[in-house]
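[audit] Reproducing an earlier prediction to check determinism. Same input, same settings, fresh worker. If the tokens differ from the archived copy the diff job will pick it up downstream; this log only records the rerun itself.
[audit] input (133 residues):
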Amino acid sequence: MWNFCNNIRSFLLFTYAEVIAPSPATLLATNRFVCEICNKGFQRDQNLQLHRRGHNLLWKLKQRDDREIRKRVYVCPEKTCIHHDPSRALGDLTGIKKHFSGKHDEKKWKCERCSKKYAVQPVDPPIRLFILI
């Protein structure tokens, strides 16, 4: 039963969804949109456009085209990852960013006791145990 459902899911995915494969640099970028006047960075184009109003520059929010809205799915750029397969893709950009930074990016936190590394600082740890490396 599981194999049949997985095959149906794969068929529907390729038929109706747009598969997007962002690069690691895109997934790790913090400010992709930069104001040309003050060099302030933003994560979303809409935020930049609203910021441009403060400089009295032309701005226009993009309107969604209702004629053809295709579902987008995002695959992991890591070839050995299970989410690199389009049938196992993640459904939103935020999800693939969190997945990539948590699983494949550099681990920046380390436990002083056991030396295990983590991508994010663990929640409610004794502060003295985890150091930023």
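[audit] rerun output stored. Observation attached for the diff report: The chain has one domain: 2-106.
[audit] end
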